[in-house]
Amino acid sequence: EVGMSKELVRNDRMKKRKEEKRQGETEIYVLSADTEQMIERVRRAHQGTFPSLCQLGKYTTSNSSEHRVALDVSLWDKFSELSTKCIIKTVEFAKQLPGFTTLTIADQITLLKAACLDILILRICTRYTPDQDTMTFSDGLTLNRTQMHNAGFGPLTDLVFSFANQLLPLEMD
């Protein structure tokens, strides 16, 4: 025989009702004191190694602001300098995380090497200003999309800006 069984149709209806009911419910999570303490340590470590956008004195440069080029050497130099400083701050942040310093030096280095680029991109993306389509570095240097491309981001530029735009609803700082 071909067709649907009445029992299956009813089960699907019942399933939909249960799912609708679950969507209307909100769950309340209670954090343990240890979890709250760990979150606070991570928050303090982050704030201590990454100034918020409102704490920075923004400035910009007129270098390569109009047209994309393969590489603007002066922007590349500035970007390299800022990246080095950011990597140092990332290491400082990691050392403040619970348990990180108990790992072997080799493991610490492996973790930092594996995560450093992701952390650098995530941090710069939290300093995205959509109105001007700019990103602000830790020293306040603010670059537009073209300047970021010319500073060495190249083909990653549009992906980084797109990711930053997707982070906006999270209101991260």
UniProtKB/TrEMBL annotation:
UniProt keyword annotations, A-Z: DNA-binding, Metal-binding, Nucleus, Receptor, Transcription, Transcription regulation, Zinc, Zinc-finger
GO biological process terms on file: cellular response to corticotropin-releasing hormone stimulus; retinoic acid receptor signaling pathway
Chain ranges of the NR LBD domain: 34-173
Stored InterPro entries: NHR-like_dom_sf, Nucl_hrmn_rcpt_lig-bd, Nuclear_hrmn_rcpt, Retinoic_acid_rcpt
GO molecular function: nuclear glucocorticoid receptor binding; nuclear receptor activity; RNA polymerase II cis-regulatory region sequence-specific DNA binding; zinc ion binding
PANTHER family on file: NUCLEAR HORMONE RECEPTOR, RETINOIC ACID RECEPTOR ALPHA
Name of protein: Gamma retinoic acid receptor
Organism (species): Paralabrax maculatofasciatus (spotted sand bass)
